[in-house]
Specification:
single chain; 2 domains; 3 helices; mainly alpha; about 75% helix
Length: about 90
């Protein structure tokens, strides 16, 4: 994975906490501690964004769409079954 070097500014108490975690061997170094913190925050924001989008969905409309798609799939399956049966009958004529 490609990495980029950046400069950041942290409050002294936050940096002290990061250093404490490094000393306790929770993280191998400051960079890894900050990388993981940023990665977790980005992932959490993505999950929250997905939850917000899901909350906007209309359950009744989604249910109707799911049922419609299910019916379309069922109709395709039935049609395929009829075509297969017709093909098998034709093979034995």
């Amino acid at each position: 994975m490609a990495v980029a070097k950046i400069a950041i500014t942290l409050e002294q108490d936050v940096l002290s906490e990061v250093d404490r975690l490094v000393r306790r061997h929770v993280f191998p170094n400051r960079s890894r501690a900050i990388q993981e913190a940023v990665r977790e925050k980005v992932a959490r924001l993505s999950v929250n964004r997905l939850a917000q989008e899901c909350a906007r969905l209309d359950p009744k409309a989604e249910q109707a769409l799911a049922e419609f798609r299910g019916n379309v799939a069922l109709n395709r399956s039935l049609k395929r079954g009829r075509q297969d049966a017709k093909h098998r009958r034709g093979a034995f004529v």
